[in-house]
Design goal:
single chain, 97 residues, rod-shaped
Amino acid sequence: MSKFDQAKMLMQMRKVQKELQKEIVRAEAGDGAVIVEVNGEMKIKSIKIDPESIDLDDIGQLENWVEEAVKAAIAQSQKLAAEKMQPMMGGLSSLGL
C-alpha cells in the first residue's frame, strides 16, 4: 500500500470517528423507566429515569435497570462502530494494525 493510500485511509478513519461522535444509540430498561443514550464512541450522553416508574423501597431494581440499559446501549454502540469501520478493516492489515 502506497503512502498516499495509507494517508487516504487514515483520513477516512478520522472521518468515520467524527461521524461516530455524532451518532446516538438509545437503550431502555424497566419498560422505559431508565433510558440511556450513548454515542458511537461508547460515551454515555444521557441517563434518564422516570420517577413515576421507580419504587424508592427497591433501589436494587433501579440499579439493575441502569446497568442493563447501559450495557445494552454500549453493545449497540460497539455494533454501530464495527459496521461503520468494516469497509476499512481490510486495509488495516497492510498498515501493520
